[in-house]
Structures are given as C-alpha cells and as structure tokens.
Amino acid sequence: MARETRRQRRAARAAAGDGTPTRRGRQQQVRPSQQPIKQQTGRRESKPRGQFVRESAAELRKVDWPTRRQTFQGVVVVLIACAIVGAYLWGLDQIFRPLVDRVLL
Q1: Model-level pTM?
Q2: Residues 13, 19, 22, CA angle at the centre, nearest 5°?
Q3: SS3 for the chain, per residue?
Q4: How far, in Å, are 19, 22, 31 from residue 27 at the CA level?
Q5: What is the pLDDT of residues 44-71, one digit of tens each?
Q6: What confidence tens digit (pLDDT) does each residue in 14-43 have?
C-alpha cells in the first residue's frame, strides 16, 4: 500500500472520530498533569496475611514435576557429561604439563 493511501485512510479515520488509534499498537498517553492524584501514605497496600504462601502453593500445583524415571535419566546424563568433560580436561592437563614445566617454570 502506498504511503499516500495510508495517510488518506488515517486522515479519514481521524475525521470520522471512531476512537481507533491512528497507529497500530500505540495507546494514547496520559500526561502526568492529567493523571489522578494518589495520596501517598508511606505504607504498602494491605494484603490479607498468608496471600503470598497461598499464591506460591497454587503456582507449585501448576508445575509439571518430572517422574522418578525422568529424574534418574537426568542424573545419569549429567554424570556422564561430567565424566566426559573431566576426562577431556585431564587429557589437556597431561598434554600441556611438560610445556608449562619447561617454559614457564
């Protein structure tokens, strides 16, 4: 769509006054001077006691917990990966040890 066509459509919408914003995704901003004044008491809004615990428990109920088998498989994968990385680093240490002993020490 050509730029001029978009401008004409935007102008027609603005003239019609249908309340749609002239640009997609933009909301009309309210100036700070026009916002309602909130009285600050220096305290937080009071919430019922234990609300955090109830909300946390509700979120934990939503969690898809792994089964015992999935947990065991994850542990095995981590141990194998650690063994491979450890062997790799041990090998590099054995290769570079003579170089470090002769050159740097």
Answers
A1: 0.44
A2: 50
A3: CCHHHHHHHHHHHHHHCCCCCCCCCCCCCCCHHHCCCCCCCCCCCCCCCCHHHHHHHHHHHHCCCCCHHHHHHHHHHHHHHHHHHHHHHHHHHHHHHHHHHHHHC
A4: 11, 9, 12
A5: 666 678 899 999 999 999 999 999 999 9
A6: 888 755 555 555 666 767 767 666 666 666
